[in-house]
Every structure is written in C-alpha cells, then in structure tokens.
Amino acid sequence: MPSLAAAAVCGVVGVVAQVAGLPAPWLIAGLLGGLAVAATRSAAPALPRPLVVFSRAAVGVAIGAQVRPEALIGVGGAWWPVLVVVALTLASSVVVALVVARLTDLDRLTAVIGMLPGAAPALIALGDELGADGRLVATMQFGRVLLVVASVPPLALLLRSGAAPAVDGGAGAAAVGGSPSGLEPFLTAVGIAVAGALLAKVARAPAGTLVGPLLLGAAASVTGVVSIAVPPPVADVAFALVGATVGLRFDRESLHHAGRLAPAMAGGVIGVIAASAAIGALLLGVLATDPLSAYLATTPGGISGVLAAAFDSDADLTIVVAVQTLRLVLLALVAPFAARFLRVGAAI
User: Fold this and answer.
1) What angle do CA 113, 232, 66 make, to 5 degrees?
2) Binning pLDDT at 50, 70 and 90, where does residue 191 land?
C-alpha cells in the first residue's frame, strides 16, 4: 500500500512539476516518491538492479542525444579560449566544493559531485554509482538548478539592454527542439545504451552504465551517422527511477543531516554561481558577445532550463548552446575519473 501511495505521489508531482516548467520534473517526482516510501517503512526497499541499470543507461543516452554538431561548430575559431573558460568553470566548482568539505563534515567526493555544474540527473546517478552520498548530491544539485533558474529572469531584465540579437537561431533551435521520432531512432538508442554500458564495463570505466551510453549517444548525435531518440515517456520513467533510487535512501537521520548542512551547501552553490558569472566575463572579450549571453553560457544551471531562458531573452543562442554543450561533454569525460581519484585519496 505505501508503494502505491508513493507511485501516486510520484505521478501527481511529476505532472504538476512538468506543467509548472520546473527543471527535471520527473527526477523530482521520483525523488519525492522514494522519500514517501522511505518515510513509511523502517527499511525502505531498494530498486532491483536491472531497473537501476536501465534508468542510468536511458538517462545517459537521453542527455547524450542533446549534443548537437551545430553547437560545437558555433564557436568557430574560438574553440580554444572557450575550452579554457569551460575548464575554469569546472575547476572553480571543485575548489568551492573542497572548501565546503573542509568547513563541514561533508566528504570530498560528495561535495565535488554535488557542486559540479550541469546535467543534474547524470551527476546524481553518477554520485550514487561511485559511492558518494546520493541524498546530499541530489540536495545540492537541485538547489543549484533551482537557484540558477530563479536568478535568470531578474538578471535577464538587468542585462537585456546590452544583449545582441542571436547570430544564428538554427543552433539554438536544434538544441531546444524535438528529437527524431519513430521506431528506428528509438531502437538505435536502445542499442547505443546497451553497447555503451558493455563497452564501459569492459574498459572498467567509472560509472560506466551512465557515462558509456552518454558518450556513445553524444558521438552518434554529433556525427549524425545514425538518428537516436528516447521517447519522452521512456525518458520520464528513467528520470523517475534515478530519483527514486536516491529518495529510497533517505531516512530521518539523513534528513536531519542534510538540514544541518543546508546553509553550507547553499553557500557553496551561490559561490559556484558567482564564480561562473565572473568567468563568463572572459567571453565578452573572446567572442565579442553581450553580458547576458556570457552569463547564460557559463551559468551552472540545467542545460534545458538555460537554453529555454536564452531562447526567450534574445541572447546569442549559438554561444550559449556551444559553451553549455562543450561543458556537458567535458564533464562526462573527466567527472568519473576525478571522482575515482577523490575516492582513492580519501581512503589513503
């Protein structure tokens, strides 16, 4: 009975969050559904391993499919400075996370994964798979996304006066628009998910069930060799399962712990946002863009929410999509190995 109630909570929250336009609505729904089960049982059940693997692989492919070749081409000859800006953004989040870990009893692995910018669903699944405290990672990631989404409207009003018209709406439209439809793109996505997870397992890559499909899906999307698509209902279920995996691990003690760490975690999230905005100023000289576009390009929000904000605020979609996409790809490449290094370092 509690499980049925939790499923009902999950469904209602998912629909409401989706209608309200919240980022990752079904991830939030799954998290709250898992919390509902955990709160009504002394020992909340864990999801079956096949469901966990499915959810991570599906989330990986869904995020990888968002990478568009138009976005990476959009920066033209300025790719090297843009790569430096992206690297500085990721490095600043790591520095802030280590400071938060130093000032609290939060372990370094959880702090770093919780503070990394972009692709919150992937990072929550990544942290859960690598042994970080997935509950606190989810708290920090959702806090970061919600703060960024809340900050965009007033900043857009403040900076819009200096915004330039979009140079090329095609890149933004490709990223914000829909995916290919039909059975063949879906079956291709399934094959990529399976192949990516198996290849990553053979290579012993950290968090392979997530990162392998993500990188293979991104490669397929960028090269255009095949069309891939994860139907919205499948993606919604996958996101909800990732959220439920984390929510089921909460209990009264962990909720109390998260509440005690909330001020430090919120301060860290604000620090990451401020550092990203300062680094974004470098783009003003490198790409001759406007302040709003530079902020949206480097802000550590969820990529879908940031692209929607850019689309509605006359920002330069080409630059925003290019920098956000490049950061997503770089994050997928380095985050699992950096997390493994932190975990080994903590054990020594």
Assistant:
1) 55
2) very high
Contact between 276 and 151 under an 8 Å Cβ cutoff? The reply is no
Helix 317-347 to helix 291-298 angle (10° resolution) is: 30
- Residue-number span of the structural domain to which 188 is assigned: 2-42+50-347
Residue type at position 164: A
Please report which residue ranges of 116-203 form alpha helices under DSSP H: 120-130, 134-159, 169-176, 183-202
State the average pLDDT for the chain: 75
**Within 13 Å and on the Cβ side, how many CA atoms surround 297?**
34
Instruction: Mean pLDDT check: name the lowest of 59-63, 256-260, 311-315.
Output: 311-315
**Cα distance from N-terminal residue to C-terminal residue, the chain:** 45
Q: Taking Cα atoms as reference points, which of 22, 61, 35, 263 lies closest to residue 145?
A: 22
CA distance 71 to 334: 20
pTM of the entire structure? 0.65
Q: Cα–Cα distance between 149 and 163 in angstroms, integer?
A: 19
Q: Which of 179, 180, 222 is nearest to 67 (CA)?
A: 222
CA gap 186, 274 in Å, rounded: 39
CB burial readout 74-92, b (16+ within 10 A) else e: bbeebeeebeebbebbbeb
Smallest CA-to-CA distance from 220 within 61, 326, 58 is with 61
Q: How far is CA 153 from the centre of its chain?
A: 20
Task: Evaluate whether 117 touches 268 at the Cβ level (below 8 Å).
Answer: no
**What's the domain count of the chain?**
1
SS3 of residue 8 by DSSP: helix
Q: Do 63 and 119 form a contact (C-beta atoms < 8 A)? A: yes
pLDDT band at residue 174 using 50, 70 and 90 as cut-offs? very low
Q: Give the residue carrying structure tokens 């956000």.
A: 324
Residue 162 DSSP symbol? G
